[in-house]
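Final report, Chapter 2: Outcomes

The project's central promise was a pipeline that accepts a single protein chain and returns its three-dimensional structure in a standardized token representation, suitable for archiving and comparison. That pipeline is now operational. To close this chapter, we reproduce one record exactly as it appears in the project archive, with the input sequence first and the structure output second.
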Amino acid sequence: MTKIERDVVIIGAGASGLTAASDLVAAGLTVAVLEARDRVGGRLWTDDVDGAMLEIGGQWVSPDQTALKDTLAQLGLATYPRYREGKSIYVNKAGAVTRFEGEIFPVPAATELAIVTLIEKLDVLVAEMDPDRPWEHPRAAELDAVSFSAWLEAETDDQEARDNIGMFIAGAMLTKPAHAFSTLQALHMAASAGSFSNLVDADFILDERVVGGLQQVPLLLAERLGADVHLGQPVRSIRSNDEGVVAVTDDLEVHARFVIVAVPPVLISRISFDPPLPRRQHQLHQHLSMGFVIKVHAVYETPFWRADGLSGTAFSPYELVHEAYDNTNFEDPRGTLVGFVSDENADGVFALTAQERKTRILESLSHYYGEQAMNPVVYYESDWGTEEWTRGAYAASFDLGGLARYGADLRTPVGPISFACSDMAGKGFQHVDGAIRVGQETAAVIVAQTAPLT
């Protein structure tokens, strides 16, 4: 067992942990970053699959994500816009395919009015919320006791309007059925992006990508930290007292004054704490769970949909793949589509064989783009539910009543133990921007409490 001493030990080499580590080092403190995986990045992972560069994890940058944009600039990383020229596609419940322009789907006039009205009502509620303190919303307890599906049912009897608004939060973001999370949790998701209108605007929320992949952010941050990043080191226990902490892996024992646990909340219980975490922490962690989504990558010889006047953007709450986009890499002559299969639909296709699942998913894509979608040269499914050190996607969210009841204590330090990750963010919740913000804030608190070892 190798023993080392640092000012701060960070558990997890994702964007949040590495941002905190970088800021601590910049302030003159010493750090050790312990990562269970054999790579850095957490839920950011850019990899080569059969000769194609795929963003297996997070990838998009939106205009409001200023913390991420600042980090990209500091690291010298360039971005490029998502392809969006041409018409989008919508498939209704009857299977009719319609091409359209603009943000509102081509639905009957009464349904369009219902959708616009719901968005306006949600924007009003979101405007009353501080994304960093959603539990302080004037109606927090009330809204946290009502599922998002129940709220939608109370607001309109137009099923197609409910299906589409629900899709943006349930399928596209929290990746849970709309009956499984509260209206307050839905509002928080929207507030984290500035408004519900922002959240349903694909051209806003999915604006840009990073040339070479978003995992370059944690890779370059880790490169600066050098040998202070230790891979393949899952932390088994954390001992703490008035003098500091000891984080123990199978090979290392790190003695420090502070520890930042920068992993998803669902993994915190994998660590044995001595003394145990307080009752409040034990309780709140039991009311958080990960969503579940399959991110599907299909690479073709050419972006054939562009020649057909399509942007590649497609939506339908009635399709297995509920949304899809042109995800072609920078200056790549090939074309890539990325689609998403969420929550209960993902459960269903994982009951099939791999080939049956692939066929079902490609058939769904073909409903948007035609038969050519059935024949990609590279096909890959990002399944974060099987990742030992993630266990779901995109992030953890509270069950009914959990956000108002426990949210304020999610990041409350326990003595020398702090918590940081995108799941705990306000602005930028479940995005890299949020991970960076929380990492910066956590590091700043520690810097304010201590001076470097002499």
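Archive annotation: The chain has 17 helices and 24 strands.
This record, like all others produced under the grant, will remain available to the consortium after the project formally closes.
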